[in-house]
Amino acid sequence: MPKLKTRKGIAKRIRVTRTGKLIRAHSWKSHLLEHKSAKRKRAYRAAAAVHPTDVKAVRRALGV
Question: How far is the C-alpha of 58 from the C-alpha of 50, rounded, in Å?
């Protein structure tokens, strides 16, 4: 069976920690920030884990 190609769009957005967790950035931080509170914008800076229901599909796309 041939090797699977890595989905580059996902590879640029998600990184794998040493323990194997998948880390992603928050959305909603690119524009229309004027009406969002400072607290909300600060929270978007923090990294987030990929949701457990998506982990299997993302791992396959990354080739991990």
Answer: 9
9: phi then psi, degrees, rounded to nearest 5: -60, -40
Q: Residue 51 — φ and ψ, nearest 5°?
A: -60, 140
Per-residue pLDDT tens digits for 54-63: 999 999 999 8
Q: Quote the pLDDT of residue 15.
A: 95
**What amino acid is encoded at 56 in this protein?**
K
C-alpha to C-alpha distance for 64 and 58, rounded to whole angstroms: 9
Cβ-proximal residues to 4 (8 Å cutoff; 6+ apart), any chain: 60, 63
**pLDDT > 70 in the chain, percent:** 100
Contact 48, 29 (CB under 8 A): no
Q: Are 23 and 49 in contact (CB under 8 A)?
A: yes
